[in-house]
Specification:
Elements: E1 2-13, E2 16-27, E3 31-35, H1 42-50, E4 56-61, E5 64-65, E6 74-77, H2 91-97, H3 109-121, H4 137-149, E7 155-159, H5 167-184, E8 187-191, H6 195-200, E9 203-208, E10 210-215, H7 217-220, H8 223-230
Parallel strand pairs: 3-8, 3-9, 6-7, 7-8
Antiparallel strand pairs: 1-2, 1-4, 4-5, 9-10
Helix pairs in contact: 2-3, 2-4, 3-4
This protein binds adenosine-5'-diphosphate and magnesium ion.
Protein name: Manganese transport system ATP-binding protein MntA
GO molecular function: ATP binding
Keywords: ATP-binding, Nucleotide-binding, Transport
């Protein structure tokens, strides 16, 4: 079963094509690391999959065209610099928005417990009553991850989830995500600048407005692919 099938996807911002002719077939249960230089269209690709930006071409999720896909199937952790911390809520309240398509809404005691458990799973139980504006970047990442996980997503889309997380926290996070993927059977897409993390994925997508390479790490993370995407080898920035 394919979790995601993309055919000839293009995204245009004015005169500029952020993505051009992207085609991809991702099996259910894959852990896909997405790498590419800044401005390569990585975030735009996730947004197209989520239906957040208009695109040309075709995106199918578990065989269904995107307009028929329940948004609750997706868990999304956006890129941290795009987070709006002025959202007037406590961490726990943000996690609870993961349970619904709209906000605000009525919460049951059971759902509150569920949200606290989701925070505990990502090591953020102590942050439940903290306003978002008073969280560090790494803490905010965890809270958004808890929000994504509480949806029990079939597809988890993570846009540089280790930003603002220290190196130890980063390794913990990757290990956690790997275990989570195996236990849940969800399909995970993670944009990363971390080569180590990319080597641990089941698939790597190397991209720069187009697909440069896609496959198991040892096939996609070749010198030729990286040179083509980055212009040089060994650094993601
Ligand atoms: P990446 O995540 O790989 O760094 P992005 O997907 O964020 O790249 O952006 C790809 C390109 O599209 C960049 O040149 C960026 O400036 C441009 N872009 C992204 N979003 C918009 C937008 N909403 N309007 C105009 N240009 C955009
Ligand atoms: Mg980005």
């Amino acid at each position: 079963m394919l979790a995601l099938e993309i055919k000839d996807l293009s995204v245009r911002f004015g005169e500029f094509w952020a993505l051009e002719g992207v085609s991809l077939a991702v099996p259910e249960g894959a852990f896909v690391a997405i790498v590419g230089p800044n401005g390569a269209g990585k975030s735009t690709l996730l947004k197209a999959i989520l239906g957040l930006v208009p695109f040309r071409g075709e995106v199918r999720v578990y065989g269904l065209p995107l307009r028929q896909v329940d948004p609750m199937w997706f868990g999304y952790v956006p890129q941290i610099k795009t987070f709006d911390r002025s959202f007037p809520a406590l961490a726990l309240e943000l996690v609870l928005t993961g349970l619904r398509r709209s906000w605000p809404f009525r919460v049951s005691p059971k759902e509150r417990e569920e949200a606290l458990r989701a925070l505990a799973r990502v090591g953020a139980e102590g942050l439940a009553e903290r306003p978002l504006g008073r969280l560090s970047g790494g803490q905010l990442q965890r809270v958004y991850l808890a929000r994504a996980l509480i949806r029990k997503p079939r597809i988890l889309l993570l846009d540089e989830p280790a930003t603002g997380v220290d190196r130890v926290g980063e390794v913990d996070l990757y290990r956690y995500l790997e275990d989570y993927q195996k236990a849940s059977g969800a399909t995970v897409f993670m944009i990363t600048h971390d080569w180590e993390a990319a080597h641990h994925a089941t698939h790597v997508l190397v991209m720069n407005r187009k697909v440069v390479g896609f496959g198991p790490p040892e096939k996609a993370l070749t010198e030729a692919c990286l040179r083509q995407a980055f212009g040089h080898v060994g650094h993601a920035h």
